[in-house]
Amino acid sequence: MPSILLTNDDGVDAPGIVALHRALxxxxxxxxxAPDRDQSGAGHALTLNSPLRIRQVGEDAHAVDGTPTDCxxxxxxxxxxxxxxxxxxxxxxxxxxxxxxxxxGTVSAALEGTLLxxxxxxxxxxxxxxxxxxxxxxxxxxxVARRILRDGLPxxxxxxxxxxxxxxxxxxxxxxxxxxxxxGVVERxxxxxxxxxxxxxxxxxxxxxxxxDYAALxxxxxxxxxxxxxxxxxxxxxxxxxxxxx
Length: 246
Ligand code: MN
Description:
By secondary structure, the chain is an alpha/beta fold. The protein has helices at residues 15-24, 68-79, 105-115, 131-151, 213-218, 237-244; strands at 3-7, 29-35, 54-58, 61-64, 86-92, 120-125, 157-163, 171-173, 179-180, 185-189, 195-199, 205-206, 222-228.
């Protein structure tokens, strides 16, 4: 049986990861190592200034008082005897699309798996905490996992998978979309009369691009976006060098 490390950013007992654990258990030996609380929006953060504790919460489930990236490191270097064949992160209950993926703990956990040399994918679905949504996405995750375990992934990439709410029209390979940034901070007054702020209270809008992950999902496809590790903007390397280098 292949060895699969499973994590998420919603917490070790979130319904998405529980559904995914059950489904992946059919195709591999799954070890669940996930944050002990909701770490959505943690991005690729690594805990460096405090100790990390691991608490076993089930036969093959461990809670970590840290980030998704911490969990991948502890899973690979501490809890597993050998390097896993696959890292899977999710199922996030809301999509991870376009520019938003840089904030995503779900996607960042898969990024960490890739950096550590393990084929990895992140999976998110569109449709709130409903059980049906997670079951469909868990089925999709199994198919993706089977294919990666069989064929591998090209190096230096992770796969970002988003599953639509309605019955899927199949996979579509799509590029990372671009968000239209609007006012994203909500200002309120607390009961003591002091101002407070909440970031991200506004629903995202996306640039109209038929090749984007957003468009694929909206059209009812399961979007597959290959993400690169190297963020270098190749197209301006030469121009910058000609202007800045002596
Ligand atoms: Mn989340």
